[in-house]
């Protein structure tokens, strides 16, 4: 079978007369040099154990001895997996068709000027697709950085630290289309099709769910679950499968009806043992929404399971190859500006100014300037919008329902160590600890952050409600205690083993909306009851809930509503102009 891939991170170790390569999807790596190191497309460093699948590469015995003597017994070569075949899936084609409608729509005789607040993925997506339809978006961002919940910053050493640990799934069709439309598919570093969980009862060990490439969905997912005997017993698997039957048979209508019940309560109602929740769904709940299963709506879990089990590559993960503002957001900005749109940083909205009829007149910025347009979009987080909600709108049911939508606190931790950690993978890892959600060694998983000598762990600290007001040092101390369990031979809480070189702690007091039972009816459509005013963001109504995919889809749906309202909006602008002339 031909092996195709890109440079990223894999482990290579020499054992006897064989070298073992951690990957079953390597690229054509070139020829071996006389010292046993691959000559082309190889990134090598000492001090890491091999994990995962083994592919034997024969080396001469003398070469092996010289390699061990000169470079130490361990080397790491970095390789990514090829992009999965997503383009012919139903969801990808559906997303592609929606994208095409903007490019194919009749060119407007008078392009609309649409003022958009918030340059996160929701606002960027709205602006991008409006520009594709021939309109002129004016995108305003309060901060000096793009991305919203995917924002990142560079420190004085030139290292990046991010708002969150962002994973791009195969089940994200609108994001996958967006990358393709921008010509940046090569910026996603795809990993092996696995889900890897730490084993708290066996410190330093992991349990894997490996999805077969040879089987279609849902068989590949079912086999992955059946083959894992470390986390769930056979009786637990059977009871879990029986409990899931209503969701599998009932389809989307059943999934949506489970919004009113928590994960924990649903599991008990279906006769699923509590240990299944503890072993699998605490980690999954924290990864999806930063909260535990006694709080999370079961609808959220079922939507994820539906995508992961019904799409062959749905649960396959990719990392962005660098920092999100430059590697993802800037290409969107360049696309918007190439079509006549504008993106302005440091443009914080202070007030939504209304006309006498209750419609939006302008967005007033913190410097006192007023930005007017033919239509207005608020694409910042729901908590910010509620603070700026005009008094005249507060009794309207559409806006009243937003009160139940509240952002969940989350903390993202970055720790640079003085050495290369061995007990890790080139992948996202579920910590299954009480304080941490997921983590990754970004010095291995991400090209821009690659470091052959030192590890940088990026970790999601969740649930974070009790920790968001604590000091960075307290958070780091607590994190190190958890890491001592994940890396028992390499990390200790007192730093007597691996030493911290530096750290960054990014606190987001209000992140994605907290997906608790009963939230679904409160999520607003993108078109508001106020003519000419729209909402975008992952909290608005779309089928991917609080996620990057949800944010991008919300922007497309918002842009679609504006394009559909073109004649109405042009008429409003002409009426406004006529009134200004006569007055």
From TrEMBL:
A biological process from GO: carotene biosynthetic process
GO cellular component: chloroplast; chromoplast; membrane
Key words of the record: Carotenoid biosynthesis, Chloroplast, Chromoplast, Membrane, Oxidoreductase, Plastid
Catalytic activity: 2 a plastoquinone + 15-cis-phytoene = 9,9',15-tri-cis-zeta-carotene + 2 a plastoquinol
SUPFAM superfamilies: FAD/NAD(P)-binding domain
Highest taxon in the source lineage: Eukaryota
Needed cofactors: FAD
Enzyme class: oxidoreductase
Cross-referenced Gene3D superfamilies: FAD/NAD(P)-binding domain (3.50.50.60)
Domain spans labelled Amine oxidase: 121-562
Subcellular location, record wording: Plastid, Chloroplast; Plastid, Chromoplast; Membrane
Keyword Plastid annotated: yes
Pathway: Carotenoid biosynthesis; lycopene biosynthesis
Listed GO MF terms: phytoene dehydrogenase activity
EC annotation from Swiss-Prot or TrEMBL: 1.3.5.5
UniProt topology in membrane: Peripheral membrane protein
PANTHER family cross-referenced by the UniProt entry: 15-CIS-PHYTOENE DESATURASE, CHLOROPLASTIC_CHROMOPLASTIC, PROTOPORPHYRINOGEN OXIDASE
Family classification: Belongs to the carotenoid/retinoid oxidoreductase family.
Subunit annotation: Homotetramer.
The name this protein goes by in its record: Phytoene dehydrogenase
Source species of the chain: Solanum lycopersicum
